[in-house]
Structures are given as structure tokens and as C-alpha cells.
Amino acid sequence: MNFSFKVFSCFILLFLVFSFFAIDFVYASYQxxxxxxxxxLGEFVFDDNFVATTTDCTIEIxxxxxxxxxxxxxxxxxxxxxxxYNYTTAGNAPSGVWxxxxxxxAVARGDLVIVDKSFIVDWSVVSTSTIKxxxxxxxxxxxxxxxxVIGANINAxxxxxxxxxxxxxxxxIWSFSGRTLxxxxxxxxxMASAVWTSISRTLTGAGLDSGSLATQSxxxxxxxxxxxxxxxxxxxxxxxxxxxxxxxAYKAKxxxxxxxTIPTDADSLPTVVITDSAGTVQVPNGVMTKNSNxxxxxxxxxxxxxxxxxxxxxxxxxxxxxxxxxxxxWNLSSSPAxxxxxxxxxxxxxxxxxSVRIDNKGTSHSxxxxxxxxxxxxxxxxxxxxxVDSGSATAYINAxxxxxxxxxxxxxxxxxxxxxxxxxxxxxETNWAAATxxxxxxxxxxxxxxxxxxxxxxxxxxxxxxxxxxVSGRAYPKSSVTLLxxxxxxxxxxxxxxxxxxxxxxxLTGGNYIFAVYGEDSKGLRSSLLTFPVSVTAGATTNVSGxxxxxxxxxxxxxxxxxxxxAIFGQSAPQADxxxxxxxxxxxxxxxxxxxxxxxxxxxxxxxxxxxxxxxKSKASxxxxxxxxxxxxxxxxxxxxxxxxxxxxxxxxxxxNNDQRVNLIDFSIAAYWYKRPLSAxxxxxxxxxxNGDGKVDLVDFSIMAFYWTG
Length: 710
Description:
6 helices; 45 strands; Immunoglobulin-like; mainly beta; 5-stranded antiparallel beta sheet; elongated; 7-stranded mixed beta sheet; single chain
């Protein structure tokens, strides 16, 4: 019904993913650098649709002595969403944690995001350039020392040998009787060989760990190993989805960055496993889609029957031959609410009353908590001790159904402009639905319009202004439509071939009424009752449009042999999308389309459920234009044989003992079950003949009063 609109109070303006780690699984650690090195601080920034944003982000850096080194400075941003800042520390930079903060956005609880980008300066960290410098210097010193030692040994040996030689050689030569130079043979060659072979002249075989000097081969190997170690660091981040509702989509995004924080492809496409809150794997082996280098996404459509609660997504990605897993936990709401403020029915201070409708749009029955208030500013929210007046309560709403409420607040002190606000959510959920309606509070009694006085002379007198309610919407082609006013038949009409109808009630007085409407299909089956409150102003016409009467429903078997099909059928508007629900531990949903006469048929495979008793219901929709409520429920048994259903007959609402009358006997039966748990035998009777909400209360007695025969 088009009385108002729905406002969701959940906005996600900026989405920032982070979690820096290396492939050797040092999770969430700060970057560590040596004094004099340069650190790159950055993040990829996306909006909630995973679109990269270049919105300004700033960085602020302070050293361990609490001295600000970089005041808030705008970071460099690229079209890929990468925001970064390069900072080079001094050679004598103090060791410790350097607190650094990255800030994006400005609105608290809006787009503001603050990220810790601190890093560590540690003198124990040695960069590759430092290693090279140390090695080069050591080699230079070692080579010089070795040359000096060798030179000194040779000089000493030569000097000693020369002294001895010069001391003895002349005497030996001159005292030798057959002295000739040729008699010394290979003396010169032997001496040279002895000198050079007695001194180690190479550096081969040395190792750094032995304290010896390094060889060129060892240096090359160490440098290569160190470079490989540095290049093995990777950052893999998975988005944090948060929460959503049924009939929406879950989205995941994965980023893979190499050691230089550049988006880099994984070895293969990442895989996804999604498990619901009951522990059932819903996606056993999903494959992510590559959006760009190192960026992958995955989307999962959440059905209307999905189980609410905390779901788990595990993404596995292979990088350099190693498998990395990332997990995202997110909340699913299975009973989302919708809120409409239909009208402000009483505007005279100090008491203000609003007519409100709350829908359970989910697939699970639930208690709904609702809060309502009157405020003097549109931007003011309920709560915070600044409401003009406020209240709250809870109400139980069946899946796919709704309640109409008359909410009254008694403490509006002065006339003027105010806003009536209502918000609601299922007790087990966190998502709120809300609605707001502006109104002008009035002082004193509101006087209804006065008929103009009659004219003179011509004999034409004035006529009273008629007070009327017009109700229009969709039923079934050429079906009977009945309108009730305060549980009494007020008018009937026949819908057109297109199922549209319009029905009017006149000669009303100003005030509040409870209207209800139902349709009767070509088989004589009645729809469930659609009830709505209307505030009528004297002398005015009130139009209620957008009514969509729920489908009728029946089955072809009262018992179906497990494994066989059971036909579920009924009537609705022509060419409508029909959803058929069959209750079980896991509720089943089927879809079909009604024909040009509004008739629909859905064959349910009973092999999908265990032996037992089940109930089916249906609802209709036409594109995004209109959605009906659920029909009444029809029961059937899944057993060992097929039993045809009894011919469809008109049953009398309120007739609990099947005597085609509604009287004190039926009243006594209902009175027995008043506010008691229903038995398995009486529960189907309550569903068919009374309100169908699984309990007996004043609503059921109102139905009996309407159908009373005596």
C-alpha cells in the first residue's frame, strides 16, 4: 500500500581494507626498517561498491621521542585507489615504534576512517646496501692486510736469505776448487718454487660463519638469497562485508600486493567457501573473478529462505606456491522490517496519534521491537533525552505478514510543526527500518467543514459535503470483492478482467475506522483478510490505493506418497509472479506465473521432505510495482500413499465444529483454546477457520462475531 516510504539507517560511504603481513605468516606486524632507510606507508581505498577512490587521505608521523616528523600531509593517490607516502629516516634515527596515522574522510560515524600505519626503526636491521658496504670495506681491508703480510714475509725471507747467501756464498764459491756458475744447476728455479709454494695466495674456501674472509662466490650467493627473502613478502587482504538482509547479495573483494606493495596476480584464481549460521556449506567451491591485476571479487545472491545469523566466508589464494586463507564473518538478517506511517490521525495537543504499519519482509516469524517518538527537528533521532515524547513496545509478526498500530503520545505541550518518527527491527536482528512524517500540531478542537448556506430567490439550497472512503487495488479477474468496516460488510463489487477493482463507502462521519477487504475466486475460495486502519475527515474523500489481495490456495491431495508431486494451485492477478512456500526444517520456496485468468499451478516434489505434515502458502507480485501478503495456509501429509483431496467447498469462517453455523458452540471451543498452546489437531482448524497465526486471541473472536449465525 502506498501510504509512506521506507528509510534505511545504514550507510557505508568509504570502505578501507587492511591487514599487512608476509607470506611467512607474520600477521598484522609493523614494518621494520634500519636507520637511514625509506619506508612506504599506504593502503588501497575503495567505496562500498569496490570502486577505487582518490579522495584525499593524509599521513601524520611522530618519532619515539614524541617529536612530530611529518605533520598531516596529503598522500599521493593513484587511479587504482592506492594512497601512499614515502618517508626516509635519518641515519641517526632513534630506535622504536614511530606512531603514524593515515586519515581518510572527515565525518564522524560517516566517511571518517583512521588507520594505524606505525612502523619500527631498529638498528639491528641491516639493509642490503649496508651489507654490500660492509663486505666491500672488509674485502679492501683484508686484501691490503694480506698484501702487506705477503710482502713483509717475502721481503724478510729474501733479506734473510740474501744476508746468509751473501755471507756464505762468496766463501763457498771461492773455496770450491771447481767453481763455475753452471755447477749450481736449478738453484734459482728451486728457490723460487719453494718461496711461492710455501705461502697461500688464494681466498677460496673461506666462509663468513668461520670468521674467515668471504669469497666472491659466497658474496654472490648471499646477495641472491637476501634479495629472494626480501621479495617473498606479500600482502593479502579480504574485505569486511559487515551485514545484510535476505534477498540481497553478499560481496567479497581480495587484494594481493607484492613486496613493493604493487597489485600482483596470484598463481591462480582464488576460491571461496561460504557457510551459513547453521553450519551448512552454501557455496562449496566458488571461484572469484579477476577485476584487475591482483584484485578479485565474488558475489553471492542470498535467497529469501536463508538462515539468519553469523555467516562465514573463507577465501583461499595460492601465492608463490603457498596457500593463504582469509576469513570474513558477516551477519544476515532473516526478518527484515518495513515501516510506514499511514497518517497522523489526531493532531490536537497534547495527545498525538499516528496510524502505523509494520511488515515482516523476511521468511522467519519474529517478535519485532519498535520505537516511536515526536521531535521538533527532522534531523533529530528517537532517543538521546531530547524527544518531545517517546514510547516503545514489541509485537509478534508472522513471516510475510504485517500489523497495523495506533501509536499515541500524550505530552506535546504546544502547537507547531513536529515530526513523528517510528523505527522497528526483529529482536534477533540489528538492521532498523524507519519512517518519518511531518505534521502540524493544533490547539483546541478541530471543527469539521460547515456546509455553505442555501441561496435565496432561486430556491437552490446548499448541499452537505459528502464524507467518503474509496478503496482500490488488485484482486482476481471478475472476482467478488468485499469491503468490511469495523467487522461489518460495507460494500461489495466485481473486479474487472484485469483484476483491478474500486469500491466506495459513503455517508460516514469523521473518525477512525478499521477496514478490511477480501476476494473470492472462481472456485468459491476466499482470500485471507487484509486489514488496514483509516482516519476519515468529515466532509472529505479519503482514497486508499495499492491494495493487493493475497492469492487463494488449494492442493490436489490430502496425502501424497513421498517422492510423488503434489499440485498446489489457486488464483491471483493475471501474469503475476507467484511464490509458493512449504514449511519444513528448511523452508522450501517455488516460483511460477499465473495465466491470463490469474490461475497458477506449482508441482511440489515431496521427495524433498521427510514423512510428516506440512503447510503451504503463496503470495503474488507484479514486477517492482506491487506485492501481496501471504495467503492462508493449506495442509497436506507426506506419507506412503496418494489420497485425493476432498472437493473444494466453501467453508464458513468461525465454524469450528463443521455444522455450517457459527454460534455459542464454536465460541466455547475457541474460549477453551484462548491463550493456550494449540494441539496438533486444532492447529489446522485455527489456520483454516480463524486468524491463522497459531494462537487464539481477541482477533479470532472478532472474526467469529463477523460470521455469527446464531
